[in-house]
Amino acid sequence: MRGEVLIEVSDLRREYRVGEVTVPALQGVSLSIRQGEFVAVMGPSGSGKSTFMNLLGCLDRPDAGRYRLAGEDITRCDADRLAAVRNRSIGIVFQSFNLLPRATALENVELPLIYARVPAAERHRRARAQLARVGLATRERHLPRQLSGGQQQRVAIARALVNEPPLILADEPTGALDSRTSLELMALLQDLNASGITIVLVTHEHDIAAFARRVIHFRDGRIVEDRPVENPARAADLLAATPHPSPLSPPPQP
Amino acid sequence: MNLFDTTVSALRALRANKLRSALTTLGIIIGVAAVITMLAVGEGAKRTVQEQLKSLGSNHMIVFPGTVTASGVRLGTGTRNTLTEGDARAIAEEVPGVLAAAPGMRGTAQVVHGNLNWSTVVFGVTPEWLIAREWRIARGRALDDNDVRTGAKVALVGQTVADMLFGGTDPTGQVIRVKNVPFEIVGLLAAKGQSFSGTDQDDLILLPISTARSRVLGGGPGRSRTVGHISVKMADGVDMKEAEIKVRTLLRQRHRLQPDQDDDFNIRNLSEVVEAEQAASGTLSSLLAAVAGVSLLVGGIGIMNIMLVSVTERTREIGIRLAVGARGRDILGQFLTEAVILSLIGSVVGVALGLGSTLALTHFAGWEVVLQPHAVLLAVASASVVGIFFGWWPARKAARLSPIDALRYE
Fold it and tell me: Does B403 touch chain A (CB under 8 A)?
């Protein structure tokens, strides 16, 4: 299952200035993640895990240290190259979904393809395929507010997948979802991982981290623990064991 | 992101805030309409002035005889008889670019027809004089060389004289008496209306210069054929200042003036008057255009204002777009497109409104307005420039956001 090194960071540092005070968020993080891994990043709030995620996602730049993604030195890239990396190599899933409110599910999924300059016809085809993959083929024309939280997060995952990146970063993806919907989402992520996509997931819930195959703990801007998980739980099995859908999340209407 | 996708997404964003977009566009609409209307009004005013100037005779100068100074008292223009018909011929033959150099004499006389009479200005002229002063014939015929040679007792009358003596009936073929000499009216001059100084240009009669000199205005036929003035009409495009210098040099030679002697004639160059009037109407047009330009500028600031609000409001959307791979220039293009679409819609509606108000001004207020295609182009082009110029800063502000800051923006 383990392949080439996909992510390699060494001595990554990031500080924030809040007025006069400088708050160190990351104080030298070194780590490597291979292709096909499913990594959960845990830690209390303020431990630097979200900062780490933003750096991995090329949304932010480190103050010091190096970050190589698939062999490319990200810290040396200019803004346009970073945009291309975000577009082609990384799919990001946020806690708050971050869908465009006035665009339909299909249009939201198409967004990365627009910036990849994919022609319209192929864009529609690929976006539809991804929506079908996350089980939302019938919701193409719905606006985000017409979808449940779990469905919105699936749209966000379809959007992350649409350029077929090798890496999915998920920042507390279940944070806004109830437990059954969370299970469904984790089952989807495990499926994706099984198909070879590398997943890095930030969470503060042990239940969620239990689905990963490697757990990294952050505290005060440093990695304090990095251990593999033997026999991670299978979300699909747990779902099958709890057949009654929770009242908060009605199943999709056909 | 290609142009089509950008346009679609810009239209969607503008539609999401219909009222706001409409009000923003209103600034541009008013600006463009104002530019078009004001340019049309300015151009109309310019044309009106030019028409009036044309009746004065453009490319035109008049040479008057010099003044008499007696015991320190200087008498007025034309008190010396220094100009002759020979001078007129010499100017016509020797100064390049002369269309007509026509001698003329001027006086006033009582004109009688039946039991009606009227005091008017009498000009003794040659056929060229009609060309130099741009008189056209409304009815009948003009004077010809034969009339001048034979001293024919024929006359052309101005519209005012015709009205006074004939009350609107056809004056040609009728006989009038000028200083008891009967003249047959052979032609009616086309009306010119008032001059700039308010005198009625149509209150005159024209006689052959030979007849006028011998029968009406005085001066015997055997004498040196002095004339009251020489009207010189130059071809279009001739530099009037240079022509004036040439006429002056020629006349000084003919009059055998020594270098230390003053001219014994005066040249009144009407093109200076024309230039002054054109400059005045040009100033008027520029003023109107400037006022309209200011309203377009204000419209542009409106666009900038709204685009800035829009960028702030949509910071999160910008963050999402950046996170999925939009480059700075994609975001720049998106907001710039919105600004340009706003100003383009504004200019299309503004052109329609401008055309409408131009028509309304002609129709209801009776103003002379001249709409030129390039005025419309100018208005639309400046609206687009305004859109790009004022859209640029907000768009750049959006494009420079860092993805993480934009995403975190609440």
Answer: yes
